Amino acid sequence: KKFYELVMLLENKNVFAACLQETRRPNSVTYSNTGFTHVSHSKNTHQGGVGIVLSPSALKCWKASAYNRYEFGDRILAIRISITDVNKRVVNIYLVSAYAPHSGLKATEIEDFQVKLTACIDSALPDDVIILGMDANAELGTNHNLNDETCGQ
Q1: Cα(48)–Cα(44) distance, rounded to whole angstroms?
Q2: How far is 40 from 66, CA to CA, in rounded Å?
Q3: Which terminus of the chain has fewer Cβ atoms in its 10 Å neighbourhood, N or C?
């Protein structure tokens, strides 16, 4: 039901593609519903998981790229989409969905994610346009005084 609701929202807003985090979908699967396709990557159904939802037009562009799909650990999924622009040139988009570990986890897990994210970005081709959709679990500080000119401590 949740995927159907998401698809309706994406369709109403004319969204080409969307990156998802904390999907909790089992395994790495691809499935379609109402013309939209969910490309999923997860090793754990209880937490985490990333995905990319493609509109029907984005799916055609992904097909033009031979359904290129890249996984970097449990938290990063990338696909390459080939789009033809208005000047009839092919533009390759390297679309990355990532889910960073929060600061409460072990430093080794955070470092491992950073290494894998770097490897993912480094795997893009020189002419790729990189688009990163990520839950970065960022902490910007704790100072909540709206009169301050800076954020955080």
Answers
A1: 7
A2: 17
A3: N
Instruction: Say how far apart CA 57 and CA 35 lie, in whole Å.
Output: 9
- The residues, any chain, with a CB within 8 Å of residue 49's CB and separated by 6 or more, are 21, 22, 23, 24, 25, 40, 41, 42, 99
Q: Alpha helices, DSSP H only, in the chain?
A: 2-12, 56-64, 107-122
Kindly state the DSSP code that residue 6 receives in the 8-state scheme: H
Per residue in 75-98, pLDDT (tens digit) is 999 999 999 999 999 999 999 999
User: Token pair of 63, please?
Assistant: 């097909």
Tokens 């998401």 label which residue?
A: 6
State whether the Cα torsion 85-13-25-101 is positive or negative.
positive
- Would you say 72 and 88 are in contact if contact means Cβ atoms under 8 Å apart? no
pTM: 0.85
Q: In this predicted model, what pLDDT tens digit does every residue of 102-127 receive, in sequence order?
A: 888 889 989 999 999 999 999 999 99
Q: Rounded distance, CA 43 to CA 75, Å?
A: 9
Q: Long-range contacts for 135-138 (Cβ within 8 Å, ≥24 apart)?
A: 135/21, 135/22, 135/98, 135/99, 135/100, 136/100, 137/100, 137/101, 137/102, 137/103
| Backbone region of residue 114 per phi and psi (left: phi > 0; alpha: psi in -120 to 50; beta: other values) | alpha
